[in-house]
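User: Show me an example of a complex going from sequences to structure tokens.

Assistant: Sure. Here are the input components:
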Amino acid sequence: MTPKIQLIGVKKRFGSKVVLDGVDLTIEPRSSLVIIGGSGTGKSVTIKSILGIIRPDEGTILVDGEDITHINGAVRDKVMKKFGMLFQGGALFDSLPVWENVAFGLIQGRGMARARARDIAMEKLAKVGLIAEVGDLFPVELSGGMQKRVGLARAIAADPEIIFFDEPTTGLDPIMGDIINDLIVSTVKDVGATALSITHDMASARKISDRIAILYGGKIIWQGPTGDVDRSGNPYVDQFIHGRAEGPIKMAVKA
Amino acid sequence: MKPFAPIGRSTMTLLAHIGRLSVFTGTALAAIVAPPIYWRLIGQQIMRIGYYSLPVVGLTAFFTGGALALQIYLGGNRYGAEAIVPQIVVLGITRELGPVIAGLMVAGRVAAAIAAEIGTMKVTEQIDALTTLATNPIKYLVVPRLIAAVLCMPVLVGIADSIGVFGGYVVATQSLGFSGGIYLKNTVDFATQQDIVSGLIKAAAFGFIIALMGCYNGFNSKGGAQGVGNATTAAVVSSSILILAANYLLTTLLFSK
């Protein structure tokens, strides 16, 4: 079976700082992989490389077996239609009402009529537990948790094949965090999508993933089924999942 | 220690900026001709860039025309040439002051607003979000602003020309003792089509500069609130300087005989 997403030897440096130093990663269709790792280890860069927002210096990125590392313009836009993404801060368009945010990919990306896109947007808002009235509000009028829900509705609006979640629970209270986790699990299953998430919240990672990969020093140092993460026998993994200050991982205090 | 290092470093930075700006301009121009065209957004930007700039541009043009009339009268007085006020006012306003004053005012208003808006979108990942929604950010954000600014500036300058001349007329007739009829006749007889058209061509070029510098600085803003602030300042300063430089260049081109 062709993997949904495959990264082969992806490298990226900013100036003299090497962020990704040969990342190899394979994500099977309809699976949910979570990449965990400390702040500044390149989790976001990994996701942004796949999305083409950042161009890797070396390596290859395949989606459905197709090399997308160097594509641009209309070809890139076409591949992007397979993706949905929930951004860490929501990244909602503050100039547009909530329903237009959710319908954005349908109207702009796919040229759907506004009235029909609005109906779909309302349906997706209901799916993430928001009432129809919210659709006519603007993003600034919403709480953080509601913004995350709208972001999730926008990510799934066009029924994407692949959904990325960037720190889905960061900045939320534990209860809202768990509600978002549940929504992620149910929506990903509903849509039948492949999911890739990045987080440093272990509770969230355990809940939403089938597999876990740990990024450290610009490389994937361990990956395996979520159930195996507690008996990896890898001191790096143990230190991270238990959140110990002491251990083989040295946090860079200075960037 | 190394006296030439700072010079070299700033030269490299400048060249890098010019390179990035050229690539950005090329990408934006290519995106103008590529479908789809976002009519709705172009309309919105025409309102924001053109319509809402009318009060600012009108007021500044009025006072500039008035001050110009007064200065020419006082200066001309030394040679007994004060009757030339209407001719010089219309020449000065249509060729130079109309486009330049409107350009600088719109640069302050619009380039700043564009840079702040796009800069904020950049630092809150809204631009990345556009990409993930299969929408080209250059096409969606830059192209409508460029088109709207290039279309609106000539109209704004046409209005600024009229109001500027009117400002001169008011000062000349109310406090300098000119007869209204003769002032208007001298204005109309003296002004040529080239005076007005050259100003409108400049206006279109200034519109392009304003939207381009607003977008470019917004797209390249880094960090948080401070980064957006820096981008806004850079957008206003760079577009103002480029407008004045382009004004000289265009004057040379349009009036070289």
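The lines above are the inputs; the final block is the predicted structure for all two components together. Chain A touches chain B at residues 48, 51-53, 73, 77-78, 80-81, 83-85, 87-89, 91-94, 104-105, 108-111, 154, 158, 164 (CB under 8 Å).
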